[in-house]
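Q: What changes when magnesium ion is included in the input?
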Amino acid sequence: MLPLTSRRVVLVTGKGGVGKTTVAASLAMASARAGKRVLLCETQGATRIPALFGKPGKGYEASQVAANLSTLSITPQEAIQEYVMLQLHFQRLYRMVFQNRVMGPFVDAVPGLHDLVQLGKVWFAERETENGRPRWDQIVVDAPATGHGLTMLGAPRAMMDLTRAGPFFENAQRIAEMVEDPGRTGLVLVAIPEEMPLRETEQLFDRLGPMRNLVGGVVLNEVRPLPVSDPAAWPADHEALLVGAGSELRATVAIVDAELDAASRTAGARTRLDRLGVPRVDLPFLFRRDLGRTEIESFAEVFARAS
Ligand SMILES: Nc1ncnc2c1ncn2[C@@H]1O[C@H](COP(=O)(O)OP(=O)(O)O)[C@@H](O)[C@H]1O
Ligand SMILES: [Mg+2]
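A: The predicted holo structure follows.
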């Protein structure tokens, strides 16, 4: 069960490669199918999502990839420009400072600025209206991997500490208010049943400190199916049974053994994740690479059933 339906902004993070993009797309699809108008944002200039739906993307501009579901790719550069131009109304300042050959690189190096402006884009989308009502019911963010994700969450506070007052401070404060409000923002942590991703998830949870209340749930991805219907009946020591067996049978038995090991790692992973005290949803490992819309829809179904 992921109690995320009331949160307007859902940020998905986890160790690199564990399935953040897949989970973000599936969560967004689940909400879209439930009738919400959903914006799914990639960060750091990533542009994988349109292809998942077999559609061309429009980069920084929202483009529809399925019913009720639009996606865009946030690049720090475009977000900086929009942040300064649209939110601070400082066109001249932008040109003077940000497009200046000498100043540009310095401004670019302001710590946390890239992260702040990307969150700023999300905040901007959250505020956006169309015909007098919010343009998006929910914004799902395919956030950077764990450590960087944490830095991004802290970016508004970091900017507030850096500036102390003025328009940058006030904007950062508004973004902090959105990010830190568990009624508006939810975090989804993705892991797979392997030691390093699990440890990163636990460490992230730990380091979130007071922001832990944002965590709406964890997803245990790539859960492999059981290789035999009754693992308890699988003989622990089958060497004696294999005397005289051919290589094919031996290979099959070895595969079953490996999959049973994976199953026990999965059981261990569930225990560890459940210790965090937040809801968990498991997604099955699908025996194919390059997942597409069909798989996203089947995962969306899992999330819909869980809520
Ligand atoms: N449950 C799953 N079963 C099989 N393959 C998966 C599953 N989840 C993700 N993948 C595949 O694993 C790779 C990494 O997933 P991705 O969502 O891109 O991870 P991340 O965004 O965390 O780097 C992709 O090729 C994706 O298709
Ligand atoms: Mg990704």
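Observations recorded in class: The longest strand covers residues 215-223.
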